[in-house]
Amino acid sequence: MPRDLAMPRTFAPLEHVPSAWRVPLLHLAFAWLGSILLFLQDWADMAHQWWDSSTYNHILLIPFVLAWLVKLRAPELALLKPQAWWPGLLPVACALFLWLLGRVSGLNFASQLGAVAFLPASLLALMGPRIVAALLFPLFYSLLLVPFGDVLVPSLQMITAELTIALTHWSGIPARIEGVFIDTPAGLFEVAEACSGVKFLIAMIALGALVAHVCFRSWWRRLAFMTAAVALPILANGVRAWGTIYIAQSQGIEFAAGFDHIFYGWVFFALVMLTLLAAGWPFFDRAPEEPFVDVPAIQHSPLLRTLDRFSFSGWQALAAIGLLALAITGWSAAAQRLEAELPAQIALPDVGGWQRMEYRPTVRWEPRAAGADHRLLGRFEDEAGHRVDVFYALYRAQDEGRDAGGFGEGALMPDTAWRWLEDGAPISAGKAEWLQAHGNHKRLAVTWYRTGDLLTGEVVRLKLANMADRITMRPNATATLILSAEQVNGQDPEEAIRAFLSSVGDPGRWMDRVGQRP
């Protein structure tokens, strides 16, 4: 019989894979494929953001960068032997628990971070600490697959506005700033969310981290380069906004806006990126042929030799990971079925010294509370002429689609005339925000959240409380209260809101009263 018929050939893709790696890679493939199927909704949501949001388009390149980083290490990895490591099950459990926290509270960032963190965590459990030591940077870099940056937008708006007004005054243009609005002789300019520079900042962070790793050996040089990668786009965005205002003074707002999108939107930031790379080039201190993995150091490390004592079977590790995943998903399913009992109907109660009146705002304003089971909106007026708009929303539970503190929820309605102006001073633990419409109409809105005995204006505290309720299987309702007042007819919005609060008393107890909580 011919030899090639008697002896089956090795599967082609594995011909160049060392024999010690073949079964561990199979284990890893099973774990990763299973996790992607298990967290398919999270991966689909992330992919949608990568593709549809210009802020996250750069993430489409990160999988290819990760593959390239692993390929650079392939010759050194072939000299190491993977070995399953049972303490690695702890990071796996942590990643799964983080996913659970995000899933049961509606916090997408947490569930997506947990889904992505499962990949390096399972690699540690299935291949051991020596392989993780060789792949340390790519594993951490993989966390950039998670879309982040929205939380930075308000701060970046304010920083850009301050830089812009300083440059505007420096260039001799008379201007006045109020929050994120800058009034100039050519017109009123807004440092909107799209002008915050967040998309370029997070893209530069991803680029800066990659360049710092690949091109530098010195940690001080890496730190200096990353500092520049963060500071330069922020400063450049301030220059961009100032340039738009400067051009508008002579050429008009329409011309300046078009020039901004064409030149500043593409060419300017490309030049900034090239400037950063050119400035760092003379200080690159890693030789092109220098390996990224110090194999002798990994092979002879006393610490890694000690950790080898906790190795065990790869199939056992894979089975343990599967059991952890099933336990966490079962826990999630049970927690997500929890819902508080709510009354069939609720209403805003009478407030002593205040009268209900027809709700007719100067500019349409109705806070968003998608997924709420009850919504109330009304206007109250007292004898002193204070007018306060009251919005109340009540939820049976918090999860995807019904998220009191989610993006686009609350006082600032997306896709309307209203714009965020600046934060106000907190009132009775509530978060105060100044909103503006049509450049001259202002409204102060103060937001409180209530769940269980917690009363807060901070979304983070609400999320933590929601997580604790779901994890401990407590079906608590969540309520949102927004007190708001317009700055019209000489009314001081803050004074009006404080007057209303002095009549209703403790906001938390009043919210319980509206929601008929015993």
- Largest sheet entry: 8 strands, antiparallel
- Rg (C-alpha, Å): 28 Å
Give the assembly state of these chains.
single chain
How much of the sequence lies in strands comes to 5-15%
Shape estimate: flat
User: Total domains, how many?
Assistant: 3
Q: How many helical stretches?
A: 18
Order of helices and strands: HHHHHHHHHEEEHHHHHHEEEEEEEHEHH
Strand pairing plus helix content: what structural class?
A: alpha+beta
Cα-to-Cα separation, first versus last residue: 86 Å
Helix content: 40-55%
Mean pLDDT: 90
Low-pLDDT regions: 1-8
What is the number of E strands? Answer: 11
Notes on the protein architecture:
The chain is an alpha+beta fold. It folds into three domains: 16-128 and 311-336, no CATH class; 150-282, no CATH class; 354-514. Helix content is 51%, strand content 13%. The chain contains 18 helices and eleven strands. It has helices at residues 3-6, 19-38, 40-52, 62-77, 89-105, 108-127, 129-134, 136-141, 153-170, 198-215, 219-251, 253-280, 295-299, 302-307, 314-336, 459-471, 493-504, 507-514, and strands at 176-178, 181-184, 187-190, 354-357, 374-382, 387-395, 418-423, 431-437, 441-451, 454-456, 478-486. The strands form two sheets. Strands 4, 5, 6, 7, 8, 9, 10 and 11 form an eight-stranded antiparallel beta sheet that branches. Strand 2 and strand 3 form a beta hairpin. Helix 2 (19-38) runs parallel beside helix 15, helix 5 packs across helix 16 and helix 10 (198-215) packs antiparallel against helix 11 (219-251). Mean pLDDT is 90; it is low at 1-8.
